[in-house]
Amino acid sequence: MAALSHSSKGKTLLSRLKSFLAPERLKCSFVADEGRAHFSSDTGACSGSGQVEISKWRKIDSRNLGLTRSMISIPASVVLRNLRAAGFEAYLVGGCIRDLLLNKVPKDFDVITTASLKQVKKKFQRAIIVGKRFPICRVIIKGCLVEVSSFETIAVKSKSKQVDISEMPKGCNPRDFARWKNCMSRDFTVNSLFFDPAVNVIFDYTNAMADLRSLKLSTVIPAQRSFKEDEARILRGLRLAARLNLSFSKETEVALYSLSSLVANLSTSRIGLEMNNMLSYGAAEPSLLLLKRFNLLEILLPFHAAYISEQVDNQLGIRSLMLMKLFFNLDQLITCDRPCNESLWVAISAFNMALFSNPQHAVVVLTFASLLYSRTWEESVNFARERALDTRIYVPEILDASNYLSDNEIADRVSQFSEQVKNAVNILTNKDCLFHAMTRFPGFFSCSGVVFVSQKMGQYVKNIFNILTRDVETIKAKERSGGIDYHLLKDGNVCENRFVLGKIILRTLLYRSTAERGSVKAEEDDKMQVTNPPQKSVIKEIPQHADKNVNEKRILKDNNHVKPNKVHENASALSSLFK
Question: Residue 248: pLDDT above 50?
Fold first, then answer.
């Protein structure tokens, strides 16, 4: 078995999916089951008359796609095993199957079962039923959360039309029909797959595998109806497209443009949840680009939208803006299984807003970032003077790279700027502050007034900068044993947030672009490496598997080949971090 290079992983998997899902191959039976249906490559699950077309349903041997039960998390496996032992059916469902097929690390593993939620709760010691509109049972196994839903659960306030069991076509397997009905209530086809690891079968009732093959995002039901039923699907669609680099089907794209304003009808808590999912899991920069593209940024983050519009009008490329570079560098440090807390991306936003409104000299911002990066005043100001001329100048945020300020002047400006950053947090938490800040953009007339960051979170973010608001010359370096502690980062630890924010700002100011660095990887430039970095999966080719219906290469994920980087960081020489 030869391990393929990291750069070829995605192409290899995609080519496998394309080969496996070729039209001529879809016209065969993949798994023997009751009724042994003939599977068609056509799209859709219902005919024009509204009748269910079971010929569109597919059952696929997961092993032919490299998906095995060993890839499932231990807590999810425990839940599945216990429910089956009690006589219930239990499946993995939704995004975890999609992610495993695309060689991504799942954010979580969701389970659906024929047991009622009360029966699920009785089977586990640590379990609680939550939710009114869409109730689920949250099960804690070995400190990890597994969300379990039930086929019996009916969304009490759902606007969607329920399919009556009496409509089941003649000859249709009742189990298939129950799974299909559940699929019809889901948002996107790629989220509608079922996986039964006990028999290694993937159930596809919505042509999801074909959409995965083409990396396309399509709604399960007509897009206009889907987004009107649940406005949050608009944000989830953008998040999926950003994280997985998916394109939109034509129907979905048209609906996104025409219905994007419906997002304003969501509660602020729901908006906050969806936005945090977009910005905290390694796809913040592409998410912001999609929010801008579909006119959602001006609703959700109007200051950011006005800032981008003004800069783009000044002939600056959107990806070259400091805001986008900051979020790009955030994405380089976090992944779906190593996320950050909401407080970090709020702090990044506040930092950029303050710097945009109050431009600073490079030496001031470098000192500010170095202090966040857990260094002493002397180390930070010396590093800033040494690297000021190397700073990437962003307009209008960075004034120039001049180095004529005295140490006292730098200290005063760092403290003043820290207060300005704390004030900028209010733009994200207070509607009046937002409207006042928007007067900075007289040509930008649209401001929804939507504020979804809580006052409590805002105060938490301000605590990150408190250390810099006074007596910065007395700041002592915090001893660190290594790089980023992702457990602390996820929990929103103030010191860890401060450290990572400093790291992101320094990268943004001092790193050359990928194009400027040629083929040299960013990791090879980075002397501020993290310990235990997110592991990368390696695709291994397996000799072709003989089967009378399918003759495919398998892929297996091998997460054991990556060893944690152990980097000794010189506490007395910040300059060595960027050489």
Answer: yes
